[in-house]
Amino acid sequence: MIKLNARDHSFVEEIRAEPGGEHLLTCWSCGTCAATCLVRRYEPGFNPRIVLRRAGMGVREEVLSSREIWQCSACDACYSRCPKQIHISDVMKAIRNIAIREGYEPPGPFAVVDEATCSGCAVCTRACPYGAIDRVTKDVNGTERTVAQVDKNLCLHCGVCVAACPSGAMSLEVFSDQELLTRMGAGGWLDQPSYLQGGANEPRILAFICQWAIRSDLEWAKLEPFGEQVRVVNLPCSGRVDPALILLALTRGADGVLVVGCKEGECHYQRGTYLGRSKLALIGEILDQMSIPSSRVKFAEMGALDRYILPKLIKTISEELKTSEMAAVR
Which of 55, 98, 144, 161 has its CA 20 to 30 Å from the CA of residue 113? Predict the structure, then answer.
């Protein structure tokens, strides 16, 4: 129960005065957004309906101090299902704007810049879907240099910038390259001979999977029968996949690599699927130059209505590897 003296009606008008905040009181509190929201799979406490309800009641401190206002990634999956056609992400952004002005900070994690390594090339600036990275000129170890700078208030930790950075200066808390490499090689998986090397009975497949692309525990359970044949590494976004990690896997214990992202138009991080697919096109060219068949790397999309596709994909890739020219000489 919210006490009457805890309500600040000026807070409501302040939100409505922000761009996008004008729809705050349009919300019916039906909960359709919460039923659709992808964030709730990993953050069960996040409920956009409750956030908007509390904001509409003028509970300033409770709303601005909550971590939930920072968790919406503006994927807009809820928009098409909202009976009032509200861009809830815009209302959330309006609330965050007020929180920023009043000194509140997001909980993280964030992208981090190693200024000593950063070349200031601006590749990350162009890649970021949220405009969270800019370039600044500052003193770095006694030398004036132009380097990338991350705005923590805008960063939504998708990891696209990390994979895009040509100098390795960008990293992401929790999903750093070293952390992903550790997950790839856990239990010596990368050190075991692959099928194409004559050391395994079935092709061994490394699957980089966007954590938002598969939306039910039942889907994940379908992978269990594959056992050690398939090594799954979750990514915050398919755009986070690093070509260097794929190349490393193919030259070690993986016969094939599968990258799974959200379906185009359903990407949790707006442009992640497009960026992920673009990177794999680049990787294909690199593999051709290395005389490694580009068919060993596949990109697939999974949408909200897709079911049981992942096991079929893995079986298809496995069969293709078994009938490939490389398998013929194993």
Answer: 98
Q: The domain spanning residue 117 has which CATH number?
A: 3.30.70.20
Residues 148 and 198 in one domain: no
Query: Of the candidates 76, 72, 52, which has an alpha carbon nearest to the alpha carbon of residue 62?
Result: 52
Instruction: State the 10-residue block means of pLDDT for the chain, 330 residues long.
Output: 66 96 92 87 86 94 94 87 92 96 92 96 94 96 96 93 92 89 95 90 94 79 89 93 92 94 85 86 86 91 80 92 70
Sequence-distant (6+) residues with CB within 8 A of 152 are 105, 106, 108, 110
pLDDT of residue 327: 60
Same domain, 251 and 199: yes
Question: Do residue 183 and residue 317 come from a single domain?
Answer: yes
Q: Among 211, 265, 262, 239, which residue's Cα sits nearest to residue 124?
A: 239
Same domain, yes or no: 277 and 147: no
pLDDT of residue 1: 46
The 8-class DSSP code of residue 263 comes to P
Out of 101, 119, 145, a domain closes at 101
Q: Are residues 300 and 200 in the same domain?
A: yes
Whether 254 contacts 193, CB under 8 Å: no
Residues 163 and 95 in one domain: no
Burial of 104 (0-12, 13-18, 19+ CB in 10 A): middle
pTM (two decimals): 0.83
- d(C-alpha 206, C-alpha 194), whole Å: 11
- Look up the domain containing 140 and give its range: 108-172
Same domain, 60 and 184: no
Which H or E run includes 207? strand 205-210
Among residues 22, 47, 16, the alpha carbon closest in space to that of 32 is found at: 47
Instruction: Tell me what pLDDT residue 276 has.
Output: 87
The reply to whether 308 and 237 lie within a common domain is yes
Q: Which residues pair with 330 in a beta bridge?
A: none
Fill in the DSSP letter of residue 258.
E
